[in-house]
């Protein structure tokens, strides 16, 4: 990279970091203590609209980077082409939700009575408003979600009629799609509601959808793995994760707390990852939140994205079958080398991160506290010791460290959830929090239809040749 571009990149990165570190400007605007999230947004949105409009007016022609041929062929890595406010990912530090690290979220977000992990309700509030909510505000979100949790009979019937062989993620995404029958945004759009009000209907659909996701997920789980037994009713006095765990059939208080942590940390990972980017793209066509989140779930179902948590457990299970439950480091090393002959090592590597994923670290800390002697956890720890140096030695792997998926399955297994095919559905329930919080803002800020320019290979070659000619005066090669 030329020197000028390098210093530009450094400047942008440091700005991004600074913005992340100070947190989101919305904080300064908070003046109300209402518990109604929509009212808080109603107060914040006009101010942020003004701030963004002023920024755009002043800097609309300011370049912020360059695009190389390598980036275009390389999955658009590092191209800064999206605005996504709810979270920002630093390659070394990991994710910050509206400026807060996972550790800070664990310390600052309200918890359930008797629980030690943050309530995802609070994380959603933080993502949507950039403010740490009070206990009353979180309780209000819990009540809203509990009140909106009922799902239409046609969705239940559809789920009950799916063949047992259909992957839980396909069932999940199909159910979310058909919920759009009741989309308030789709109706408002067809009733010609003004653009300035779009966000209000996106908000309503978002709250409805988040409320319904645990019930849908639990029906899928029970249909597939619990003989179709009923999920039971929502307890209006309990939090979202407690109800989810109960509907799934789990009552261990540590599992419930694990679910709170799981649903918090999987929610958002800035805007360029497959699921977030997909929902951002689809909703830019003004597809309603149900259609946009269903699309995101189809991306999450890919083995290089969310499905990796299932893949990790399948891979560790095969490891145990092959070399036993208490293998040596040397045996594990050989197993990893054998894997590399045919596939990637699941749970390791990342498109952006260059250090151990803090989502991995917080799950490891949970395991050290609650299941230090579990044999599978010990294997995960051995993998942490052995895999990075093997991947590092290959030379081409940019990040040899573990990601979130390397750990989650082992924790779920410990509490009895052994159905690996289901794990990505849990991820999906959580990911909806992030992409929907952003969708409210994307419509509030009036983001237009997303439509990047593509080039054919011939067109790209001609463009490069023309640029070379312009720069050097050389004739382009035929
Ligand atoms: C996440 C992932 C898709 C990122 O891909 P990426 O941004 O292209 O990663 P890199 O730039 O480091 O890839 C460079 C090369 O290293 C390989 N590589 C990356 N991670 C690897 C891993 N865990 N095991 C083996 N090889 C790996 C890539 O396949 C690629 O090889 P290629 O040039 O022959 O195609 C990749 O690390 C991966 O496949 N990990 C395993 C699946 C996983 O855990 N996914 C969940 C992510 S949260």
User: What structural class do you assign from the helix and strand content?
Assistant: mainly alpha
Beta-strand portion reads under 5%
Q: Characterize the largest beta sheet: strand count, sense, and whether it forms a barrel.
A: 2 strands, antiparallel
The CATH first-level class comes to Mainly Alpha
**Low-pLDDT windows of residues:** 1-24
Task: Please state the overall shape, judged from the principal axes of the Cα atoms.
Answer: globular
Quickly count the domains: 1
Subcellular location: Mitochondrion matrix
Active site: 305, 350, 405
InterPro entries: Citrate_synth-like_lrg_a-sub, Citrate_synth-like_sm_a-sub, Citrate_synthase, Citrate_synthase_AS, Citrate_synthase_euk, Citrate_synthase_sf
Subunit structure: Homodimer.
Can you give me a brief rundown of this structure?
The protein has 478 residues and is an all-alpha fold. The chain has 22 helices and 2 strands.
């Amino acid at each position: 990279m030329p020197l000028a571009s390098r210093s530009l990149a450094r400047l942008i990165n440091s700005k991004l970091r600074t913005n992340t570190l100070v947190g989101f400007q919305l904080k300064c605007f908070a003046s109300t203590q209402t518990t109604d999230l929509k009212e808080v947004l109603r107060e914040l949105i006009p101010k942020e609209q003004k701030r963004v409009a002023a920024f755009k007016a002043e800097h609309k022609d300011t370049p912020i980077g360059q695009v190389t041929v390598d980036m275009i062929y390389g999955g658009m890595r590092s191209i800064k082409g999206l605005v996504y406010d709810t979270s920002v990912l630093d390659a070394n530090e990991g994710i910050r939700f509206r400026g807060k690290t996972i550790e800070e979220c664990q310390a600052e977000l309200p918890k359930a009575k008797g629980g030690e992990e943050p309530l995802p309700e609070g994380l959603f509030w933080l993502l949507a408003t950039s403010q740490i909510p009070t206990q009353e505000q979180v309780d209000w979100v819990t009540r809203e979600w509990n009140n909106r949790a009922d799902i239409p009979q046609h969705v239940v019937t559809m789920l009950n009629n799916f063949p047992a062989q259909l992957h839980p993620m396909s069932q999940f995404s199909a159910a979310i799609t058909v919920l759009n029958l009741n989309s308030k945004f789709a109706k408002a759009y067809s009733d010609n509601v003004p653009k300035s009000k779009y966000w209000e209907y996106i908000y309503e659909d978002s709250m409805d959808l988040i409320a319904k996701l645990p019930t849908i997920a639990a029906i899928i789980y029970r249909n597939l793995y619990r003989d179709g037994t009923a999920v039971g009713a929502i307890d209006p006095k309990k939090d979202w994760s407690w109800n989810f765990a109960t509907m799934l059939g789990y009552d261990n208080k540590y599992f419930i707390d694990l679910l709170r942590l799981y649903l918090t940390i999987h929610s958002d990972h800035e805007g360029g990852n497959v699921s977030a980017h997909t929902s951002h793209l689809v909703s830019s066509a003004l597809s309603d939140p149900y259609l946009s989140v269903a699309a995101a779930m189809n991306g999450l179902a890919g083995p290089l994205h969310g499905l990796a948590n299932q893949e990790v457990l399948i891979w560790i299970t095969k490891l145990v079958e092959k070399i036993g439950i208490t293998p040596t480091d040397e045996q594990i090393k050989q197993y990893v080398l054998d894997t590399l002959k045919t596939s990637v090592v699941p749970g390791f590597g990342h498109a952006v991160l260059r250090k151990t994923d803090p989502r991995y670290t917080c799950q490891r800390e949970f395991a050290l506290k609650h299941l230090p002697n579990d044999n599978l956890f010990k294997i995960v720890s051995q993998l942490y010791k052995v895999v990075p140096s093997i991947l590092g030695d290959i030379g081409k792997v940019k990040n040899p460290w573990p990601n979130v998926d390397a750990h989650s399955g082992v924790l779920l297994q410990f509490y009895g959830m052994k159905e690996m095919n289901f794990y990505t559905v849990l991820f999906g329930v959580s990911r909806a929090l992030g992409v929907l919080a952003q969708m409210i803002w994307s419509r509030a800020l009036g983001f237009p239809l997303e439509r990047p320019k593509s080039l054919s290979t011939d067109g790209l070659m001609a463009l490069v040749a023309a640029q070379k000619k312009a720069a050097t005066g050389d004739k382009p090669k035929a």
